[in-house]
Every structure is written in structure tokens, then in C-alpha cells.
Amino acid sequence: MKRHEARRNDEVRVIDVVRPEAVQLQSLAVGGQDLVLNGAGIRTRVFLKIYVASLYVPAKSGDAAAILAKGPRRIQMNLLRDLSGDQLVGALNDGLKDNNTEAEMAAIKVQADQMTAIMKDFGEVKEGNVVALDFVDGMTRISLNGAPKGSIAGEAFNKALTKVWLGDKPVQADLKKAMLGG
After folding, report:
1. Burial of 100 by CB count in 10 Å (0-12 exposed, 13-18 middle, 19+ buried)?
2. Which of 34, 122, 143, 162 lies at 20 to 30 Å from 51 by C-alpha?
3. For the chain, what is the domain count?
């Protein structure tokens, strides 16, 4: 069994990549609201384990539409390998395009460009780093290892971004199922 360290603020935790739910916090607060772990899974590409993705919501739900309909929520990525900012943002932008219509993409272009700039500023993200995408108070707040890196206004943008994992063409079908608690 391979283990990785994950950092959340000053806390260091060991990730059991065989059982990602064993490593994620069972609850946390975003914008002063308590959220619970809805589900977690491992994003893979070819044979590589890329990150553990976890979804936090106010109450557990297996219904993607219900989760997309309201906040707050968090999608957290605990990295299992080093990635460049370009790799991270490229994958997210591909997921946005796969799960949103041309009209939806046009409506969030400014916000998608803001996300690109914020994440490219990360430079290289390392194995063990934690990227959090919080949707609260109509904003998507992006943090790296607990440090705020930027905020992007708009519910439509956050819904489009969340669809990368929970949309009709998710980045990985079994990851969507795991994040929905299945």
C-alpha cells in the first residue's frame, strides 16, 4: 500500500491511496457553514494516480443536480504527484469545455480566464499539496495548502466548474460516482 502525505493548513496527514475516504476530513467549515464529506475518489490518467478528489456539501446527497443547485460546497484535490500549473489548469479547462455548452462557456469566459491566471500563478504544485475550490456567497474561492490564492465571482462559473467532476461528461465516471457517495 502506497502512502502519501497531505497538508491542510499546519496539519500533516498520511493518505492511504487505496481508501481515499480514510484520509479526507469527515467535516469542515466553509464560509462559516459546516460541510460533510459527500464522497472521495482517485483521479487517474492512464496508469498514474493524479489526485484524491473529495466533495464536501451541507448534507450528503447522491444527486448531482441537487448539489449543483445550491452551495456552499468544496471540491478538494489532494495531489498524489507533481503537476505544473499549466497541466492543472489545462485539465480543468478541458473539463469545462466537455461539460458546458458554447453559450455557457461564452458566459463564463472572463471567470475561466481568471481561474487560469490564478492557477498558473501556482507554478508547480507538488505531491502532497492541497488545492481547494470553495463555493460560498456567490464566489469560487481558490486556495493552495490552506492559503487563499484568489476569488472568482459568479454562481454560473462555480456550477460550470463543479460539472468538471459531476457533469454529464465528468473527468472520470468512477470518480463522479465516488464523489456522489457511491
Report:
1. buried
2. 34
3. 1
C-alpha cell at 45: 490518467
Reply yes or no: is the peptide bond before residue 72 cis, omega within 30 of 0: yes
Closest CA to 89 of 49, 52, 133: 133
- Flag the least confident range among 19-33, 83-97, 140-154: 19-33
Give the CATH number for residue 100: 3.50.70.10
What secondary structure, in 3-state letters, does 115-177 show? HHHHHHCCCEECCCCEEEEEEECCEEEEEECCEEEEEEECHHHHHHHHHHHHCCCCCCHHHHH
Domain residues for the domain of 149 are 3-179
What per-residue confidence (pLDDT) applies to 26? 72
